[in-house]
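can u do me a favor
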């Protein structure tokens, strides 16, 4: 069995992260391995990959076979492209300086794409927050209007009750003054 470059699962349920390891093909997935060359965390956006580039390249040159997922990770990091360029140097298609220039240009382009994705995610996150705040402000405004409406209705009701009470008191006062005037008149007539 050839040596494999593969992922070894770690972490807890529904929150896994992986070690990128070089292991014997017969060894269990999470078992004994020859060397750990990096780690991969798919829980972040974009996924976090820490890879020892030189060790991965040397293991590929020695004949280690990456699994499908490990191949995708190595391709994403540029290890497979670097191996391809070094193969071209060995065949004499171009010199090592040209290979380095091509790899640096590819790496710059890759970093620009990653940064563009991060910027896009940050922008969409900010827009979502802004939209959510605007919606919340509208809801708060409606609540404030409803509360003000209820308060104005209560104030109007209380004022109407107060006015009715004052009118009732004024009416009872006028009745009592009318009665006292009548009594006074009777008293004057009696004298």
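np, heres the sequence
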């Amino acid at each position: 069995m050839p040596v494999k470059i593969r992922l070894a699962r770690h972490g807890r349920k529904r929150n896994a992260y992986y070690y990128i390891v070089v292991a014997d093909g017969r060894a269990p997935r999470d078992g004994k391995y020859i060397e750990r060359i990096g780690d991969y965390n798919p829980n972040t956006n974009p996924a976090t990959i820490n890879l020892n580039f030189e060790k991965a390249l040397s293991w590929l040159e020695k004949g280690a076979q990456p699994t499908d997922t490990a191949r995708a990770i190595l391709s994403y990091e540029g290890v497979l492209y670097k191996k391809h360029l070094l193969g071209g140097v060995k065949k004499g298609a171009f010199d090592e300086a040209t290979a380095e220039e091509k790899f640096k240009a590819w790496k710059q382009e890759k970093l620009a794409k990653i940064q563009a994705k991060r910027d896009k995610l940050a922008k969409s996150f900010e827009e979502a927050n802004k939209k959510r705040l605007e919606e919340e402000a509208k809801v708060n405004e409606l609540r404030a209007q409803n509360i003000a409406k209820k308060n104005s209705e209560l104030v109007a009701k209380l004022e109407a009750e107060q006015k009715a009470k004052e009118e009732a008191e004024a009416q009872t006062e006028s009745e009592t003054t009318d009665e006292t005037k009548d009594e006074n008149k009777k008293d004057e007539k009696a004298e």
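The beta strands are 3-12, 15-24, 35-41, 48-51, 65-66. hope that helps!!
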